[in-house]
Amino acid sequence: MPQDLVNARDPDDPPTEDTASKVRAVNWMVVSFIGFILIVAAFAAYFFLGSARDGDISTPANLSNRN
Q1: Backbone angles phi, psi at 13, to 5 degrees
Q2: Is the pTM of this model over 0.85?
């Protein structure tokens, strides 16, 4: 299993399971971070485009200052 995850330079010295585990952890971290960024960008685009669609951006500050 570790041989499949990490490309060993020397076939006689395959990587250890610790190295493979670290590689899997870094891969999951990168994928999770990219997923988080995409979700945040989707929410931001949805709310910003939705609030600007009618031409009146109603923020909480604007709503509280209306009399």
Answers
A1: -125, 80
A2: no
